User: Fold these one by one.
Assistant:
Number 1:
Amino acid sequence: MVGEGVAEPASAATDAAAAAAAASVDPDEVLGYAQALIAAPSENPGGTEDEAADVASGILTDLGAEIRIVRSEERRPSVVARIGSGEPPRLAWNGHLDTVPAGDPTTWSSGPFEGAVVDGRLVGRGACDMKGPIASALAAVAALRRAGLSLAGTLDLHLVADEELAGTHGTRVLRDEGLLDQDAAVVGEPSEMEIALAERGGAWVTAVAYGKAAHGSQPHLGVNAILTMSRFLLRLPEALPDRVHPLVGAPTVNVALVSGGSAPNVVPDRCEVEIDRRIVPGEEDPDEVLAPFRRLIDDLVAERPDTRIEISLKEWTEAAETTGDSAIASVIRDAIAAESGSPPPFVGFTGITDARFYINDAQIPTVIAGPGSLSLAHTANESIGVDEMVEAARVYARTFVGFLGTR
Ligand SMILES: [Zn+2]
């Protein structure tokens, strides 16, 4: 807050409040919140977020938040919680309640929903992606309360459903309800507390090769669709453009699924593949992304006239990029520097997150910054350092105070 006629700069009071908030983070509370969330399975696909939403709502009610559950058409719940004055400035903090499925429990060293702590690391499905980061944000809110601080602005927590399957039943619903209208947003996906300003998107492409069936003993009478497809797939890297984004790097291509053939003794007349082409910010036109694939097919046809391959776009998820010059980027950078001793770098995020809804659809300056490592997300024995969660809680407490002020 601005001190009237006081020589002390306005930021000094805010800095003191931010430090007090950070100092009030309770490490046991952070861990307890994360364990309670992990114990409430929310596998996606295969389940719903109801139990995890109940846990989060219970914690937030105890913290004095105003809570609303927003449901998708399929009744999937997102928790929208408001803390603070209701006045501007307003900040959104987004984390997803769903997780990928736990998979085979025998591949885990402890139960995926048990929340065991092993060598200082919390183990469980969602530990880093992203029930641990959500616990950090909740513990930051608790710390503000414990420190006796009231926010001058407004913090909107968006604890959403369905991020793992593209956000259709989660952040997208909040967008459609007009709830993405803050001045800035933080998406707490695991970035090892570096600040990601850009993320890649994806083009899922279906390719079908057609051939001519024949008796398996007379392959020369047919056209083998699997071999046609093989020639195409081996040359796919040629269909990548020569471009590198400064934060997220180059586009990539991955052949993800394949099916073809009907019996061991038949020359296959059809082969279908699903291709995952990751796009970088600046790649905005699906036709432009598909054009090099089509040129490659033309080349293959020129070499072998019996080649017949058709491609189509199955799904397009846009990439997103935001500026490092925003107020939220500078506030969270200072907060991380205050806790870790040095300002973090601006980086890119290799996965797809709900940040794109805030950045692209709502034009909100947004950063992706959360504890934990993306390389451990979706794995058996997913884990997060307890100290990482605690540090993140302190960073978020400083960020909430730094961006929103106190009164
Ligand atoms: Zn995630």
Number 2:
Amino acid sequence: MKILKRLIISILVLIIIALGYLYRNIADRHPGYTLNLNINPSMQPGIIQIGFGKIPITPEIIDTWNDMDGNAKYEPEKGDTYNDLNSNGEFDAVWIAGFHHLRPAQGIHDDIWARVMVLDDGQTRMAIVGLDVIGLLHDDIVDIRKTLPEHLQIDYTIICSTHNHEGPDLVGIWGESIFKSGVDPKYMEFVKKQTVTAIARAVANMRQAKLKFAQNLNDGSNFVMDTRKPQEMDPGIRVIQAIDVETDTTLGSLISWGNHPETLWSRNLLISSDFPHFIRESVENGVRKGNKVLAKGIGGTSVYISSSVGGLMTTRPDFPIPDPFTGAQLTGATFEKTKAQGQQIGLLILNALNNHEAVDIEKANIKLRAKTISIPLDNNNFRLGFALGVISHGTTGWMNVRTEVSAFQIGPASFITIPGEIYPEIVNGGVVSPPGQDFAISPLEVPPLRSFMQGKFKFVFGLANDEIGYIIPKSEWDEKPPYLYNDDESPYGEENSIGPEAAPIVYKSLIELLGSLYND
Ligand SMILES: [Zn+2]
């Protein structure tokens, strides 16, 4: 009996330790944090100040085969996998996020960045950050906000991930196994610190500026494909150019387009920011090759923000991109093709800025709404990831996730921020209710979000202040057979979504914010 009693006590102790561990992993990291911003300008449109800042967030790639003195740490044998290397305890990689596990970075092709545009109308100051990473979760965004120095006087910070698939893991699910986070905590701290520094630089660089808004709503569709029915994309390219009023030179630009930055695809092991690198380079320095110049650059610092990338916007290796200089159709997953893609988008942006439909403004003010929302975490794999600490993210209530949406207007442009990868049909229209759906409902997320936005230029910032995964129309949600359109396989997307309630909640919250923005 004594042994049995001891055994029972031991088991109880183990259960308590395990529960404590799970509780610690899913506990709210920011208890009481809630945001509710209602900013109505109290004056007429006035002087605008704009500043740009940038700083690399490129990780240090340590030679994975050798130690610091150059001595071989481990002699790989033929047929070794990365798992074998790791079991030796010597293999500590920078894990590249996206596609699958076990993508250890082997070098750097181009820097990845924290790039910032700060806008100030004399009353409200906001920072818009573009990070060349797969995603940054809301808890980490709040960490950054809490460390922003008071003297920067930022009223609202929007931190967007480009969703780069060729940079380090900052979410956790692309490490060496599904049970081990791919995030290096030291690198995470570095990214947060660099982001704060980039914002501070942008504030220090603020100058009185005029803004030029331009767009090309259709031609971007030549450089992106949709891999899931219905065929709906978000091909519009939108740009804001900020020009120093005194010197008439470009301070920088903010560019937005909807495509997964993953043209380099899954076998690339060199750190890169993928096509956004080549878009920014083209806009800043022009599209040129030797003496041949297809378009002159505008200078300054370009910030790239992804718009709707869900459902699924991508450039597969078999999708050809024409070289802008030779017209040669480039396929595969090469840097040459990725550069051509960036140059093509860069050309569309530079031409749009010279088009008579571009709009210049010298005065403006910022009207803004932002609020914390809560979404149930319904994905069992994500729940397990949270509980095991693979995804370092707290929960609120019983397995809910705190996230955020916002809507704002500046002159002729309106903006909404989306905390993940939204399906373009929710933004532009075309939500369907196909046969095989899991919920027998008509489209919920209608009419489309852009129809509630005002002004000529309607920006959608995706993966903004969070990455909750795919935001899928509830009437298109499909995990169980029969599958959508009676296809043989289930569609891709649901396994990387927080759950079927994400889209209705994000949609409804944004409609409310837009209603308040224009009517209150
Ligand atoms: Zn994605």
Number 3:
Amino acid sequence: MRKKSLLFTISIILLSAVNSYSQISKPKLVLQITVDQLRGDLPEKFMKNMGEGGFRYLKEQGVWYANAHYGHANTETVVGHTVLATGADPAVNGMISNVWFDREKGRLIYNIEDSRYPILTENADVDASTEIDQSQVIAATDGRSPANIITTTFSDELTLMTNGKAKVFGVSVKDRGAVTLAGHTGKAFWFSKPKGEFITSSYYYTEYPKWVKQWNKRKFPNTYQNKSWQLMHKPSTYLFGDRDEQEWEMDMAGFGRTFPHQYGSKDSAYFGSYLTFSPAGDDITLNFAKALIVGEDIGQDEITDFLAISFSSTDYVGHLFGPSSLEAEDNMLRLDSTLADLFAFVDEKVGLENTLIVLSADHGGPDVPGYLESFGIESGYVSPDKWDKEPSIQALKQKFGIGQELIHDFFPPYLYLNEKIIKEKELDLEEVEKAVAKELMGIKGVALAVSSFALQKNQLPDTYLNRKALRNFNRKRSGNLLILFEPQYFINDFNGEKVAVNHGGPWMYDSYVPVIFAGSNLTGQRIIRKTEPKDIASTLANILGTKPPSGADGEILYEVSNLLNNKNR
Ligand SMILES: [Zn+2]
């Protein structure tokens, strides 16, 4: 009798030990951070002047993959974010570019537009006059949803595994930075520049949660009124301290090319845009994310929650001033303190030991041609809007008996032909595509012009660029030709909107991003093995024990997975 009860006691002790062990080690929160346009080398390049608790914490306490590259051709924002969310290539997840031509609807589509789900706030849609990336202006509606993402996201799989008990959220200044990571089953909030408020669409809510109403009512962005973006430190301590004014920097909507950049009055038409062109945008995103963590009780129980935050300022600053500028350098230091602030807050509310942090970027970014040329590196701009008038294309039109335009439009990386006239003239589309591709390959700055028929039939040699083109090719959404530029060649005039430089290419500066895991008692490691950002979703699924997202075919990053799985099982 006594023996039996002793055994009973021991087994109870053992059982509770096992239970508490697994409770401690399973993260209460997966915090997925995306920094828009954070090229892989930038955090360490500027770490000397960074503080504690941000990138330095990630470096000392995190598993840092220092050789991660995207494998698709079109390194744009929605494309990268969706790869991070789904672990699938754009060819598979369907998000092949920021815009594409929908042949059934007969018009261009902005990636996450959805007329069925209007924004809950009136007149909160994008402000066309200050939109750096004109793709968003193309949307035919202010409605937004993740419906165009074909495969599931890791966040979806977490929802399914927990039967909807996991709390899943995505937050960003950009709609596509939030909607993609929240997936089909989470909730997304993004920033309205005209309103200065965080908004959502009827896909997610019929009415704003109380804490969102309260946050918007507080008008936190207005605290920037009549202030300015100033340098954090003395100019002499900066690598680019002697380069505040570079001729290629953009004076967007009067925000200026030198410090201090004035935010001006909250009543000015550009106030909301100025905030996003500077570190203020990230600070506002952080402030809202903190309210979300409190308002939704994130990470407060044993069911793992998911919060994705995409910080957009680095992208805007990169487009306007270039990554090699005093603005970009100061932005990195401020991003570092924003991250330190976020990690300290999460530590207080959830505990970093209970949080699995993963940080990456949707794409890298190139240096501005002017900067490269100041060091003798050849660089330049290409003008696809002039290609229809090129002598070689004119000759081709004559051959096919086409009097009108043949090259209808170019939305990177896809070129759209005038299919109507090709049909009218009873020409063979495949033959025309291939003939145009051949001629475009002769234009300066073009590295690859390939017809969609060739991609579909897989008639191409196995080269670096063709592989990237294939991973970007979706039969229903891709344009007639995929165009890739030579290294250091860019478009900068995009439907009348000029920027200093554009990412979106297949080359290293655009594909290179950090992939860093931290928290959950991980210890510092620097991994130089080649990895891909799409490995993140597969790895998270493996660690949390969900099934892989439906298109996820990344590798499992075993340095992180082994460590955490040994604890969990
Ligand atoms: Zn981006």
Number 4:
Amino acid sequence: MNLLIENAKQIITCHTRGRRFKAGKYQSEISLIENESIFVENGRIKWIGKKLPSYVKKSNPKKINAKNKTVLPGFVDSHTHLVFAGDRDNEFSMRIKGKTYEEIAKAGGGIISTVKATKKASKAELKKLAKHRINSSIGFGVTTIEAKSGYGLDTKNEIKMLEVIYELNKETPIDVYATFLGAHAFPKHKSKKEYIDEILYDMIPQIAKRNLATFIDTFCEKNYFSVDDTRKIFMQGINFGLVPKLHTNQFYSIGGIETAAEFDAISVDHLEVMNGKDINALKGTNTIACLLPSVSYFLDISYAPARKLIDAGIPVALATDFNPGSAMSENIQLVMSLAVQMLRMNIEETINAVTINGAASLGISHNVGSIEVGKQADLLIFDVPDYKHILYHFGVNHLKTVIKKGKIIM
Ligand SMILES: [Zn+2]
């Protein structure tokens, strides 16, 4: 089926000009065009312009009138933990009464409580819950999403989670990328060494053999996985063809950034706590800084130093980190609002952070993340006459239409 989006008031193309991501002053460049149309053929953008070529008219496309509306590339949520069972509403209630994330974890709450519920749940149950959440993400404009394992913490249940993610990619209208995060927490009743050996010699080979994940990640943090643990896991992951990504610098700076840079990680995620050395270690690398301001909002911890990162020429992406403990929200537009208000990012930097830079942090910016001829037609139509209204008229979802691979999915 062909599709013609006619006469958009604005099209925010986020054109890359051949770059893999946007950094420094280019992160503000959104390449706005006005009063133009987009023609989509076989799921790809075939033409963008004012005067329709005759082949477009002849192809008799389905038409969408975008007069007074704004078109953006589909959003890429490049960091989520959307497969899980159970909830942590009681823990939330405890926390807002003053208990810290670490105190709750030490008292047996935190990740481990989600692990319990996820282990118990069948694949079908997990998938049903996750599909519901993906639908919610689509409603906010997400057309590509990443999802991590990490609530299984044994070979059988980590693989169960990754199988769910694999099937979500086939059974939902959007693309779902899998990250193996066995190193999310340590299970009870196993020594640290035993568990890391299980990750290295049991999980990684099986997951890689069955192509169940693209990325490998660890929670590199004090009391969780050290720099040495991360290094071992990355080395083995890379041996088996997985691409490193890293949870780091959420609570402490323990050398995760340097380790990620050493292994050419595709992204470093969180970065709420960054010193000058950490920023220097990222400068000039190909690693995307993926910031998760919903976590800072929800846990009431410091926000990542987005301005310092952007001003140092480091490409910044934004994602939800959707998970039941520290960011129970699929709303990527809320993330954008927080980026503008709390991270002091400008509107244009924020848009690039959830489109082209989000795509770069999944290694797919050659295919999605901008509106360019030849790219996959993942497009959003907002009922606003100017893109600034998406963030200016805040707390309201102005999204009217979501298009994935040329098909209207919402
Ligand atoms: Zn996370």
